[in-house]
Design a protein that fits this description.
This protein has 411 residues and is an alpha+beta fold. The chain folds into 3 domains: 101 residues, no CATH class; 95 residues, no CATH class; 177 residues, no CATH class. The chain contains 12 helices and 17 strands. Strands 7-8-9-10 form a 4-stranded mixed sheet. Strands 13-12-11-17 form a 4-stranded mixed sheet, covered by helices on one side. Strand 7 and strand 8 form a beta hairpin. Helix 8 packs across helix 9 and helix 8 runs parallel beside helix 10. The two termini are 38 Å apart.
């Protein structure tokens, strides 16, 4: 029986299938098109013959066809079972098309672990996680697990597993990044499964979050002469003025206004040169929307890119900074009377989640010294609410500690 090391493995096909829909079936003809040998992969324990068979050819709704006849040569005659069939009449399917193999996911990840030089993770890892191995970097060791589809309570599952394994940190490989904010002190790095032709998991990506010393702020960058002012009409609308011109897109969005204010507060405070981890801004889509809003702002003297260049992103580290001098950032006195403009008792689940994210951003701004709102009256998310919504407050740790690597190292 051949070992995986002796077999040509179509990693691009296997990894894309794992990362995508989670469908672990592969047709014979798909494997043959890659030049791989189905028999060799079966012998290596990476796939097994499945009793099921594929969807109707040329079917938009992926129905399971009804078997009508068997000519005896391994092929089949099938028809669509629906009242309004996707294909009329009988369809002849070659054996290489309807015959399917099923990936043996645990064996595939065991092979990936060996290929990436990972040590066996012998500790008990329970569903929904699947153990991959232990990634060593110098004297440090990081357990690596697989979770294709993050579900509700993802943060709790990850924190619980990290504590169970007792190694001080955790790398979670997922099919699609759920964009759920985790604090540096959580010591949990979430990375998407890469689709590579050689099976490289590219785990070095996780170290930018797990080894804070790798996030050393870069050299000073050129500041702009832009003037930035934040104000609010309590409960009515928010105001962001750039060079005395109001920027559109902030008036009725609590999250966008507070996300921009969070970046400005870090720059105003001055620690670490104003650089902060982008993941601390609550979610990637919110940050992207902020950048798009700034890019659409028509501010005299800022050119076609609008105010988008005011936020500097350091590639490869996930750090962002506002390119405005601290003395040019003004927090208006009206911020002390800050109120959310998003109100209502019949809010959708997305609106409720957005409100809780805004409350966390508000608390972060207050922690950084921004004179906004009544600190005693804000951030009143109860522990039970955090459990059910998946929203967690920031732990009280400064980015200075995170960036300087003073957090406890995993051993």
């Amino acid at each position: 029986m051949p070992s995986p090391a002796d077999v040509s493995i179509p990693w691009t096909l296997l990894l894309s299938r794992l990362r995508g829909s989670g469908n672990t079936f592969i047709r014979y003809d798909e494997l043959q098109e890659t030049g791989a040998s189905p028999g060799a992969l079966i012998g290596a324990g990476l796939v097994r013959v499945s009793a099921g068979w594929g969807a109707m050819p040329a079917c938009d709704h992926m129905c399971t066809p009804r078997r009508v006849g068997d000519p005896g040569d391994g092929s089949l005659f099938v028809e669509c079972p629906h009242a309004l069939p996707c294909v009329h009449g009988l369809v002849h399917i070659r054996g290489s098309v309807h015959r399917k193999l099923r990936m043996r996911v645990s064996n595939i990840f065991a092979t990936l672990a060996q290929k990436n030089g990972l040590e066996t993770l012998a500790l008990n890892v329970q569903a929904p996680f699947l153990p991959i191995g232990i990634f060593h970097k110098g004297e440090r060791a990081f357990p690596v697990v697989w979770l294709r589809a993050p579900r509700q309570g993802f943060e709790l599952w990850c924190r619980g597993l990290r504590e169970q394994l007792g190694m001080g940190a955790l790398i979670v490989v997922v099919g699609t990044d759920p964009c759920i904010p985790l604090h540096p002190r959580d010591r949990i790095s979430v990375v998407e499964l890469p689709v590579t032709s050689n099976g490289d998991l590219q785990l070095d990506r996780a170290l930018d979050w797990l080894l804070p010393e790798r996030l050393t702020p870069p050299a000073a960058v050129e500041e702009t002469n832009v003037r930035l002012r934040f104000a609010t009409l309590p409960g009515e609308r928010h105001i962001v003025c750039i060079n005395d011109t109001e920027a559109a897109g902030f008036r009725y969005s609590d999250g966008r206004f507070l996300r921009f204010l969070r970046i400005a507060a870090a720059r105003k405070k001055g620690e670490n040169g104003g650089w902060i981890a982008k993941d601390l801004l609550s979610d990637k889509k919110g940050f992207q929307k902020l950048c798009e809003t700034l890019g659409k702002s028509e501010i005299p003297g800022l050119g076609r890119s609008g105010a988008r260049p005011l936020i500097k992103v350091q590639r490869g580290t996930g750090l962002v900074r506002l390119l405005v001098s601290p003395e040019n950032i003004d927090f208006g006195e009206s911020l002390r009377s800050f109120e959310f403009v998003t109100r209502g008792t019949n809010q959708t689940s997305n609106q409720e989640e957005g409100r809780r994210t805004a409350e966390l951003l508000l608390r972060d701004c207050q922690e950084l010294g921004a004179p906004i709102g009544d600190r005693e009256a804000r951030g009143s998310i109860g522990p039970d609410e955090r459990m059910t919504t998946g929203v967690y407050p920031r732990l009280e740790v400064s980015m200075a500690e995170s960036l300087s690597g003073r957090a406890k190292d995993p051993r």
